[in-house]
Amino acid sequence: MSAPKIAVLVGSLRKDSVTRKVVRAIEPFAPGLSFTELELGHLPLYNQDLEVEPPPEAWAAFRAQLNESAGYLFATPEYNRSIPGGLKNAIDIASRPYGKSAFGAGRPGAVVSVSPGAMGGFGANHQVRQSVVSLDLVMLQRPEMYVNNALTLFDASGALVDEAAKRLFHNFGTAFTAWVQRHAR
To answer: Which of 8, 33, 120, 125 could form a disulfide with 148 if both were Cys (CB 3.0 to 4.6 A apart)?
Structure first.
């Protein structure tokens, strides 16, 4: 049996994103899962006027990737106590048109928020949860994943060097793997 495919939506569009580094550092602690990061930067802004047959090609491809996934990992930095516009746009594209969400109802999901500050992206984490609550995803509640002081966790080569973060990532990866195995269809 192959590992369940997890669609990863990284809210930061930067090539050298700390949020992306966090996801890559979590992945080895979730060996029962197959992470696939979906590109968000090329998605046109959601506009219901474009919701015709066929919809924009980038939307259709993105929706298909989500539909083929067993679960979802939302990884977000915090911008002004909220989530980046690109991530919100991706959630809007995926959840439309009404009643035809590309997020599979009842599928498992989790949120990781990342911040260089002390609060670990608390506001962004809860903004993602607020945005997906109506999509009938089964979201992992614990352990909550607020990654604070994120700029100090990696060395110059991008390797995770913080021991407390390694334990946190291990606990999260183990819990998320069990959550997906329990809820994946």
So the answer is: 120
Looking at per-residue confidence, does 113 or 99 come out higher? Answer: 113
- Three-state DSSP at 67 gives helix
62: CATH: 3.40.50.360
Mean pLDDT confidence for 4-33: 95
Is the Cα torsion angle 185, 23, 79, 14 positive or negative in sign?
Answer: negative
- Are 62 and 43 in contact by the 8 Å Cβ rule? The answer is yes
- What residues make up the domain containing 131? 5-183
Residues in a beta bridge with 154: 160
Q: How many domains does the chain have?
A: 1
Residue type at 127 in one-letter notation: Q
At 42, which amino acid appears?
H
H/E element, 17? none
Please tell me the distance from the alpha carbon of residue 173 to that of residue 18, in angstroms, as a whole number: 18
Give the Cα separation of 139 and 149 in Å (integer): 25
| Distance of alpha carbon 128 from alpha carbon 119, whole angstroms | 16
Alpha carbon distance 70, 108 (integer Å) = 7
